[in-house]
Amino acid sequence: MKRSQRLASGLIAATALLGATLTTPATASATSGTAPACVKRDVIKHRKYVKVTNLCGQAMHLKVVIDWGSDSPCLTYQNKEQWEWNWGRGSYGKVVTC
User: What's the CATH number of domain 3-97, 2.60.40.20, 3.40.1280.10, 3.10.20.30, 2.40.50.140?
Assistant: First the structure.
């Protein structure tokens, strides 16, 4: 194989590897996604308050995401269990599974 062919092959392989790296999903520590509609959210943004109720018929691992502020911890909530979360800085983002 000529030097130019080896160089081209190496560049193609490096480009493919870089592309695969850039499209790899986030790590397992990242949140799984927005909580389903069976998780009820009552948000009062100007009071920096949200009440979340699990109506999914099963236990759910959930947390409240606050944009530009501190998120709630990821905890397990049983069916029909509800909880409140207040924050000081930032704004309500969403409730996610975790």
Answer: 2.60.40.20
